[in-house]
Amino acid sequence: MQSELRKKLLDVFSNSQDEYLSGQHLADLIGCSRTAVWKHMEELRKEGFELEAVRRKGYRITRTPERVTADEISLGLMTEFMGRHIHYEESVESTQKIAQRLVYEEAPEGTIIIAEEQLSGRGRMDRKWYSPKYTGIWLSMILRPNLPPPKAPQLTLITAVAVVQAIEEMTNLTPQIKWPNDILLNGKKVTGILTELQADADRIKSIIIGIGINVNQQVEDYPEELQPIATSLSIECNQQLKRAELVQILLLKFEKLYTLYLEKGFYPLKLLWESYAISIGRNITARTVTGSLYGKAMGITDDGVLLIEDSAGKVHQVYSADIELEN
Known about the structure:
Number of strands: 14
Organism: Cytobacillus mangrovibacter
CATH architecture of the largest domain: 2-Layer Sandwich
Function: Acts both as a biotin--[acetyl-CoA-carboxylase] ligase and a repressor.
CATH class of the largest domain: Alpha Beta
GO molecular function, one term: biotin--[biotin carboxyl-carrier protein] ligase activity
Helix content: 25-40%
Protein name: Bifunctional ligase/repressor BirA
Pfam families: BPL_C (PF02237), BPL_LplA_LipB (PF03099), HTH_11 (PF08279)
């Protein structure tokens, strides 16, 4: 985990507006010695940060490496609580598994777990999620909302809106949401969301939201079986993107939507979700554990349940399914 001094140091640089900061000034602001400041700056240099150190002027960060370390994410992060505690790993089996452990260790709300690579990433229904090194965002967020368990699916939908808004801001692409948890670009999957709940009978104890975003993969990076159905932001916008910057935007978007949700309820977020949904008004097939249902997607309920009208005019509520869109 990132040290408190390192977080304070990066917060100071985030607010410095690219000015030089003297070692003594930094030491006074973060409450340590000038020697400690120098050691932290050397650690940042080893991580790949490019630094300028000018006599009588001080330090300035001129470039950050293309990693998603705690330091990179913290430098420039504008949130109040999301991402203020970061657990970073080079390679993991699954960020969700680490999040589960941290939940029991009382990690605070807004803690994120992020890795450069997942060896056993997974999506809904335990499907494998392809998570190659240094290409995507493989992230889990810990939330502790004071809500009853039936409200948990709403947070998946809110996360989907935050992801879409972050991608829009970063790339000018226009993603669409496929209920309940996929983000598509040109009909291909670019993001998946997995929500796991720990709850008592009447109260949510914690929610872990896993997000996998394909950022800088190229077509040849995907196994052949995934090439027709998966894409990345880089493929769609024809440029390499800074993953840490996208994480910062995503955390800020999510924090604002989550705060609005806790204050105003789901309705304003429901309208936002429906504005991005690819399936609303279209004929779809919903494949559930009990069979398939064909009909027109009418929208979602206030609880995030999908509404499908069949050929006889009957409206069905679908709580969990795989959705196929009709061409």
